[in-house]
Design a protein that fits this description.
The structure is a single chain. The chain folds into two domains: 5-218, Beta-Lactamase (2-Layer Sandwich), CATH 3.30.450; 228-447, PPM-type phosphatase domain (Phosphatase 2c, domain 1). The protein is 35% helix and 24% strand. It has 13 helices and 17 strands. InterPro entries: Bact_Sigma-Reg, GAF, GAF-like_dom_sf, PPM-type-like_dom_sf, PPM-type_phosphatase-like_dom.
């Protein structure tokens, strides 16, 4: 069943129904309850379901919320046509009637439609004012049935009392909130309009907040994905495997990045970095630091000197935005590794015999602070060896320290030779936290045997 279609017990409306004669205290209690239950998340669809869960059956027998399609898909305020018609999507429906599935057939959740101005829904959107229909005539029910091509509508709506209230935020009509009372129920009266409009106003604010949050997330994800490498460079002598997993939380779009940079036919640079913080600022800073790293790498600097200059760049970008980074160079002719770290989690080196151990890199301060040159750690990665670079999202959770997470990572990397893609999948599956509150970047580089040719003579 569609989660946007709520079925309530029709018998409960007898004891819960807020009548037109309700006191101001009863109405205030209703609105206070609505304020408590509406907007618990920044998910637009969930907010609409919460509203209808409050309104039905306490205020109406059935209800529905329609939101303009552009607001849902693009997060932008829709342009209201002069005739009031607009493309809207039914986000949620709630019913407290004996024949709920008839209403689901007549008004399916997820439907995208245009309500012409001759209908109460279109009129409410065109005027941005509530439309009250004490009892719907058969002719209006027939018009709705004809407009949407569903004869069942002509059977359900006649005799019903309608209250259609526009959802208005920042002076824009986002959609409308429709409440229906069956023929057997007391019809809506003028005194119900103020209550419906107050409920719609609170709903519109929550929907607008969800819109803004969703738009920021989409923007940050688009920016972040555009700045990350879609295809890493081929590196002679190295087999590369990588994974990038964005955070699952709406707010936590971060600045993790990784790169493989070919310096020459024999030498390759491996980079993983993490801009502290989340959102568009972090993603933008990540893109600038990644570009600067690629530019500095073209000068063939040693890792310590490169991170020293990258720190200067970071200080000029944003004084409040810090980042960590680990930069390593690999020479396939000798197997030599040179690694420097600006506050980053330590790399893990897997020996050809399958034993994984932490590379003893001395981390300097993060990018954006300090000014001293960083120490370089030298190691050797012979054929069959593998270097693992990653961000702290892979090894740190709320209930696990970084040291424990790194120890678990070393255990996962230790063992007989396996395909590098399989290793990536194994690590991510085992190490990614359930809350997914931080980005994860993982870069594996495995040294391949050096191909030597024998002279013909």
């Amino acid at each position: 069943m569609n989660p946007g279609f709520l079925i309530k017990d029709p018998r409960s409306r007898i004891e819960l129904r807020l009548s037109a004669a309700a006191s101001s205290q009863e109405r205030l209690a209703f609105l206070n309850d609505a304020s408590t239950r509406i907007g618990s998340t920044l998910d637009l669809a969930h907010t609409c379901r919460e509203v209808l869960d409050v309104a039905v059956p306490r205020f109406a027998d059935t209800g529905g919320i329609m939101v303009q399609e552009r607001l849902i898909t693009e997060g932008e305020f829709p342009v209201r046509p002069k005739d009031g018609s607009a493309l809207v999507r039914r986000v949620a429906t709630a019913v407290a009637v004996d024949n709920p599935w008839d209403w689901n057939t007549a008004f399916p959740v997820g439907e995208v439609a245009v309500y012409p101005p001759l209908l109460p829904q279109g009129q409410a959107m065109a005027t941005a004012k509530t439309v009250l229909v004490p009892r719907l005539e058969q002719a209006v029910g027939d018009e709705n049935a004809e407009a949407f091509g569903r004869p069942i509508i002509a059977r359900l709506l006649p005799g019903c009392s309608f209250l259609v209230t526009p959802l208005v935020a920042r002076g824009n009509v986002l959609g409308f909130f429709v409440l229906v009372r069956r023929e057997s129920s007391e019809p809506f009266q003028d005194g119900d309009i103020a209550l419906a409009e107050e409920l719609a106003a609170r709903t519109a604010i929550c929907i607008d907040n969800a819109r803004l949050y969703g738009r920021e997330r989409r923007t940050a994800l688009t920016l972040q994905s555009a700045l990350l490498p879609t295809l890493l460079q081929e590196s002679p002598g190295l087999e590369i495997g990588y994974r990038y997993l964005p955070a699952g939380d709406l707010a936590h779009v971060g600045g993790d990045w990784f790169d493989v940079i070919r310096l020459s036919d024999e030498r390759t640079a491996l980079v993983v970095g993490d801009v502290m913080g989340h959102g568009i600022r972090a993603a933008a800073t990540m893109g600038q630091l990644r570009t600067a790293t690629q530019t500095l790498a073209s000068l063939d600097l040693d890792p310590g000197e490169l991170l020293f200059r990258l720190n200067r760049v970071a200080q000029q970008l944003d004084a409040d935005q810090l980042a960590t980074c680990v930069y390593a160079t690999y020479d396939r002719a000798t197997g030599a590794l040179a690694i420097a770290s600006a506050g980053h989690v330590p790399p893990v080196l897997v020996r050809p015999n399958g034993l994984a151990e932490i590379v003893p890199v001395v981390p300097g301060p993060p990018l954006g602070v300090g000014g001293e040159r960083l120490e370089i750690c030298e190691a050797t990665m012979p054929a069959g060896g593998m270097l693992a670079l990653y961000t702290d999202g892979l090894v740190e959770t709320r209930d696990r320290s970084i040291s424990d997470g790194i120890a678990d990572l070393c255990s996962l990397l230790t063992g007989p030779p396996r395909e590098i893609e399989r290793i990536c999948d194994l690590i991510v599956k085992a190490q990614r936290p359930a809350d997914k509150r931080d980005d994860i970047a993982l870069l594996l580089a495995k040294a391949m045997p050096v191909e030597r040719t024998t002279p013909l003579c």
